[in-house]
């Protein structure tokens, strides 16, 4: 019997404990825990890795704190433009949607692209038209409006930058986080995350986690959600979803929807990335992990570590989650933090941020 395993991420970047209120941190942890439970319930009952990663990502798309689905950031025009991708490693098939609007759960649309078309990637108006034909649930603009995202966009415009999601907070950002925290409701059933996550680095040590070679001036968020899983049959799958960058212009599309850059799965490993998308595209980061395993004979941990090292060398920041066909999991990153969690074969759940 294969070891089943599940890992998720909710974005990477400059995530400082000193800038996080206790209530907001608990709400993030609860969101991660709920996403793990959604996917694990499927795997633990003999379900497929594909169904599991979709369920985990849907859970985070429905949570307003994550930059995907309902919590997506605003463009310069005050709109929400979303990207998503999903890949079935067993069949080496993938589906993706980019530059879509008003889709409640873009990851579901991505799966329909994989299963109901002969294409891999649909974008813009065509993707939205396909969503309508498939009767994918749509939501009005108001559904995607969150006060903290709107203030984040105004702050980005005022400072003249394209802003990612997690950042060294400005005064406006600090106030925004306080406002979010004050609006948090119940925060029960939070995971006690005293044990270490299975990563290639000591994720408790933030002193060495920032990339000193970053080509990103004043690095901000890497707000993306994703999941990878290995099911009872050893089949692998990956899924990633994002609202992109705050204040983005000109129909910018990042790495999430590009197979091999932000999302990849085959019979060797499954990978989902989060970070500054342009660098993940340049490094073909998700596929890079699989390539190092196949062509260099590296373990998952070794391959992921080398991939993050390469990302660091080309000036990128962020991280990835990956699982292999034996149920091994790694969650390396080179930024200050990454919202992340995993469930190992014995059912032990771990959630970490810093």
Structure summarized in a few sentences:
With about 350 residues, this protein is an alpha+beta fold. About 35% of the residues lie in helices and about 20% in strands. It is globular.
Beta-strand share of residues: 15-25%
Q: Return Rg in Å.
A: 18 Å
CATH fold name: Glutamine Phosphoribosylpyrophosphate, subunit 1, domain 1
Low-confidence stretches: 166-209, 214-222
Main beta sheet, described?
Answer: 8 strands, mixed
Domain count: the total is 1
Number of helices: 9
What does this structure look like?
The protein has 354 residues and is of the alpha+beta class. The protein has a single domain (5-352), classed as Glutamine Phosphoribosylpyrophosphate, subunit 1, domain 1 (4-Layer Sandwich). Helices cover 33% and strands 20% of the residues. The chain is built from nine helices and twelve strands. The protein has helices at 22-44, 49-61, 106-116, 124-133, 147-159, 171-183, 277-283, 285-296, 300-313, and strands at 5-13, 82-88, 93-100, 121-123, 224-230, 236-242, 263-265, 269-275, 318-324, 329-330, 337-343, 349-352. The strands form two sheets. It has an eight-stranded mixed beta sheet. α1 (22-44) runs antiparallel to α2, α5 (147-159) runs antiparallel to α6 and α8 packs across α9. Mean pLDDT is 83; it is low at 166-209 and 214-222.
Helices and strands in order:
Elements: E1 5-13, H1 22-44, H2 49-61, E2 82-88, E3 93-100, H3 106-116, E4 121-123, H4 124-133, H5 147-159, H6 171-183, E5 224-230, E6 236-242, E7 263-265, E8 269-275, H7 277-283, H8 285-296, H9 300-313, E9 318-324, E10 329-330, E11 337-343, E12 349-352
Parallel strand pairs: 3-4
Antiparallel strand pairs: 1-5, 1-11, 2-3, 2-6, 5-6, 7-8, 8-9, 9-10, 11-12
């Amino acid at each position: 019997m294969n070891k089943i395993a599940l890992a998720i991420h909710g974005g990477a970047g400059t995530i400082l404990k000193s800038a996080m209120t206790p209530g907001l941190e608990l709400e993030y942890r609860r969101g991660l825990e709920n996403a793990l439970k959604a996917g694990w319930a499927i795997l633990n009952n003999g379900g497929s890795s594909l169904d599991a990663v979709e369920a985990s990502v849907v859970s985070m798309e429905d949570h307003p704190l994550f930059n995907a689905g309902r919590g997506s950031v605003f463009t310069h025009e005050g709109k929400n433009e979303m990207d998503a991708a999903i890949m079935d490693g067993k069949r080496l098939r993938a589906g993706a949607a980019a530059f879509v609007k008003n889709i409640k759960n873009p990851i579901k649309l991505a799966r329909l692209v994989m299963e109901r078309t002969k294409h891999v990637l649909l974008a813009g108006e065509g993707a939205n038209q396909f969503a309508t034909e498939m009767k994918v649930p749509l939501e009005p603009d108001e559904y995607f409006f969150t006060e903290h995202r709107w203030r984040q966009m105004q702050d980005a415009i005022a400072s003249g930058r394209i802003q990612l999601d997690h950042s060294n907070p400005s005064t406006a950002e600090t106030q925004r986080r306080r406002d979010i925290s004050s609006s948090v409701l119940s925060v029960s059933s939070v995971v006690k995350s005293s044990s270490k996550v299975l990563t290639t680095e000591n994720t408790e040590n933030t002193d060495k986690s920032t990339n000193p070679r970053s080509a990103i001036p004043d690095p901000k968020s890497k707000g993306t959600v994703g999941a990878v899983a290995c099911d009872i049959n050893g089949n692998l799958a990956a899924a990633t979803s994002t609202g992109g960058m705050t204040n983005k212009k000109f129909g910018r599309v990042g790495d999430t929807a590009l197979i091999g850059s932000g999302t990849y799965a085959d019979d060797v490993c499954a990978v989902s990335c989060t970070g500054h998308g342009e660098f993940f595209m340049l490094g073909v980061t998700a596929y890079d992990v699989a390539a190092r395993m196949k062509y260099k004979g590296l373990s998952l941990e070794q391959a992921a570590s080398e991939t993050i090292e390469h990302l660091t060398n080309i000036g990128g920041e962020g991280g990835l989650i990956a699982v292999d066909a034996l149920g091994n999991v790694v969650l390396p990153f080179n930024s200050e933090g990454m919202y992340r969690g995993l469930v190992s074969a014995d059912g032990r759940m771990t959630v970490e941020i810093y």
